[in-house]
Design brief:
The protein is an all-alpha fold. Helices cover 80% and strands 0% of the residues. The protein has eight helices and no strands. The protein is elongated, with a radius of gyration of 24 Å. The two termini are 37 Å apart.
């Protein structure tokens, strides 16, 4: 988890901390808190979103503590920082709606792949997920390269239709909210 989100979270925190070291401290504390939650046995379905929320809350707490200690910024700087913290949002991918839509899209694509004929599905998985070239897929399955190409083409068309349906539903849902 650390390697995966560290730089992204550090950049996020640096935008308001104005001090890279302070931002690094916030990121480290965020990781410590999220890891503590994970080690407690409590499931964390979206660790990235929890990291962002924790970091943002820590920055707000630091700002409040500095005000109480009299280390507050000049009034203009304080208003600017406060406005930045209030408007600071995690990337769209961390939002619950986006995560739910993404999970639904993945489920739909997996269902589409599961619905493929057995040999077609096998060729598609060997090629797309295992990264095997057509010739090796053909050799493993005991079929011609041309047949592998046809299976993969059929599977790709099914996935494109599914993606188009998902995109159509998402577009329809966003217009119906307005």
């Amino acid at each position: 988890m650390l390697e995966r989100y560290y730089q992204e979270l550090l950049n996020f925190c640096s935008r308001t901390a104005r001090n890279r070291d302070a931002a690094a401290d916030v990121v480290q504390e965020s990781y410590a808190r999220v890891l503590a939650v994970q080690h407690s046995g409590q499931p964390v379905p979206e660790p990235r979103a929890l990291l962002y929320r924790t970091a943002r809350n820590l920055q707000i707490d630091q700002h409040r503590r500095s005000e109480v200690r009299g280390e507050a910024l000049q009034p203009d700087d304080e208003e600017t920082l406060s406005a930045e913290l209030d408007s600071l949002a995690a990337p769209r991918a961390c939002e619950p709606d986006t995560a739910a839509e993404s999970a639904q899209a993945v489920s739909a694509l997996l269902a589409t792949i599961d619905a493929l004929p057995l040999r077609c599905r096998e060729a598609f998985i060997l090629h797309k997920f295992d990264g095997l070239p057509h010739a090796e897929v053909a050799e493993r399955m005991g079929i011609s390269r041309k047949m592998v190409e046809q299976h993969i083409k059929l599977a790709m068309e099914a996935c494109r239709r599914c993606a188009g349906d998902i995109g159509f539903q998402a577009a329809g849902a966003s217009t119906s909210r307005r």
